[in-house]
Write a structure and sequence with these properties.
250 residues, alpha/beta, six-stranded mixed beta sheet, four-stranded antiparallel beta sheet, 10 helices, globular, binds adenosine-5'-triphosphate, transport
Length: 250
């Protein structure tokens, strides 16, 4: 479980998150949604300790994230942040292999190699494994980054807008892979999504943020409503229910 207790955050004196308390249960997919600037990436980066937490506490299982070493944290939690700065002169397979670093610290063993191979296969990267990152498409690169996070083999996987750059087939297949990781491997996936329909279709629960506060949380059918679209997203788009699932008609 990820437990966020009374977390507030400021950047340059400007309040970004206001007293957020939240529990993300272990297992399944939790989607963070909300309009631009709501604080989704900030909250995710605080959970992964990419930014220093100054007010409140975050626990991952029984670890308080401010109090564990980088190595311990990296064995429990992998994050794919929104902007990833990695040398373009890195091959796909090298990128994926980086995911194992917290485990082997520079001396990969057979298990590390096996997990890298499994990640390459699972994410369909075999045909492009020897290509450099600037020789593949944006969507393929996105998949390679998710494969690196998968190779890290942590219980918790945090992904910030992983559907960026993906076409409909790519987005759907990535969400199905994440679903499989949650259902078959028992992973806990926390994912920032802009497309509410993907969140409603694939996530077990949704947390909607608005102006640095939790505006709603729960299963899609409870969260994705006309009122949410109006009050949180400021749009009069309507929600229909298809096969028991809310669908936003844009
Ligand atoms: N480095 C920074 N310096 C100043 N303000 C920042 C910085 N990073 C984020 N902010 C501000 O914090 C607020 C929350 O940003 P954040 O990126 O967490 O939102 P978000 O919900 O992920 O948005 P988006 O959907 O646009 O990615 C925004 O108002 C943003 O302008």
């Amino acid at each position: 479980m990820i437990r966020v207790d009374q977390v507030s955050h400021q950047i340059g004196g400007a309040p970004i998150l206001h007293d957020i308390s939240l529990e993300i249960p272990k297992g399944g997919i939790t989607a963070l949604i909300g309009p631009n600037g709501a604080g989704k990436s900030t909250l995710l980066s605080l959970m992964a300790r990419l930014q220093v937490l100054r007010q409140g506490e975050i626990h991952i299982d029984d670890m308080q994230i401010g109090k564990v070493s980088d190595r311990v944290l990296a064995r429990h939690l992998a994050i794919m942040a929104q902007s990833t700065h990695v040398s373009a002169r890195l091959r796909v397979e090298e990128l994926v292999a980086f995911g194992r670093y917290p485990w082997h610290r520079g001396r990969p063993g057979p298990e590390d190699h096996a997990l890298v191979e499994a990640a390459i296969a699972r994410f369909g990267l075999g045909p492009m494994r020897a290509r450099f990152l600037d020789e593949i498409s944006g969507g393929q690169r996105q998949r390679a980054f998710v494969a690196m996070a998968f190779a890290q083999d942590t219980d918790y996987l945090l992904l910030d807008e992983p559907l960026n750059n993906l076409d409909i087939a790519g987005a759907r297949s990535l969400m199905r892979l994440l679903r499989q990781m949650a259902d078959e491997d028992g992973k806990t996936v926390v994912i920032v999504l802009h497309d509410i329909n993907y969140a409603a279709r694939f996530a077990d629960r949704i947390v909607a943020l608005h102006e640095g506060r939790v505006a709603a949380q729960g299963p899609a059918a409870e969260v994705v409503t006309d009122a949410l679209l109006r009050d949180v997203f400021g749009t009069d788009a309507e929600v229909s229910v298809i096969d028991g699932q809310p669908v936003v008609l844009v």
